[in-house]
Amino acid sequence: MKKHIPNALTCGNLLCGCAGIAAVLLRNELVLGSYLIGLAAVLDFLDGFIARLLKAYSPIGKDLDSLADMVTFGVLPGIIVFKLLSNYLNLDPATDLGTAILLPHVAFIIPVFSALRLAKFNIDTRQTDSFIGVPTPANTLLIASIPLILQQHPEWSAFITKPATLITLSVVMSLLLVAELPLFAQKFKSFAFRPNAIRYIFLLISLLLLVLLQATAVPLIIILYILLSVANRLRRTSVSDTV
């Protein structure tokens, strides 16, 4: 039975993604969609953690994980940005057909590049202990934070929900998904501090930011993740050059 536990968690991730798409697209419940992404992210972490703990690896588990991630961390964030753009524009298709139909669909660059990211990850042997490009869950958590930030700070709505802001965010984050940018993975092979120093530092600062800033902390955490990864890469390069 133990070999099915990780796959059951992965299916829970997929279920959250499907429910989130329905909530956002059909009922305009963007905040609920964001909470479901958060729950899916926890399940996504647990399925890999428990698979390693129980040594319950399987080829179907790897493929199932990618398929679930494509829905939850690919399609759902695209749907959230699509609805944010549609809600902001509030155009009448009868008189503004081109803008009303075409502009919000720019958001679907997110699932397209998420699919490319997931496909590259599955065949890239360099990404066993680290990542090349921003992981799809990190990108999705950034996008999922937008409805929560708007709920927490409605006065920021005029800037955050502007098409220029949302489209720029979509394009930049989509490119970072497939960029040749080495990033450390949150995989602990042991709990010793020295080999995991960067992970402990990241988790500690992230926890403090979440306590102090709540949803507003998420974009800062993603930026911190990228900056720490770049600094760690430069440090390792410097050490290897010295040796």
Write up what this structure looks like.
Strands 1-2 form a two-stranded antiparallel sheet. With 243 residues, it is an all-alpha fold. It is globular and about 50 Å long. The relative contact order is 0.10. α1 runs parallel beside α3 (59-89) and α3 runs antiparallel to α5 (109-123). The model has no long low-confidence stretch (mean pLDDT 87). It starts with a helix and ends with a helix. It has helices spanning 5-27, 30-54, 59-89, 97-102, 109-123, 136-152, 157-160, 163-178, 197-213, 217-242, and strands spanning 130-132, 182-184. The longest helix is centred in the N-terminal third of the chain and has 31 residues, at 59-89. It contains ten helices and two strands. It has a single domain, classed as Up-down Bundle (Four Helix Bundle (Hemerythrin (Met), subunit A)).
* Structural class category: mainly alpha
Unreliable stretches: none
Fourth-tier CATH superfamily name: CDP-alcohol phosphotransferase transmembrane (TM) domain
Under CATH, the topology is which? Four Helix Bundle (Hemerythrin (Met), subunit A)
Mean pLDDT: 87
Radius of gyration: 19 Å
Tell me what portion of residues adopts beta-strand conformation: under 5%
Q: Count of helices?
A: 10
Largest sheet: 2 strands, antiparallel
Straight-line distance between termini: 49 Å
Helix content: over 70%
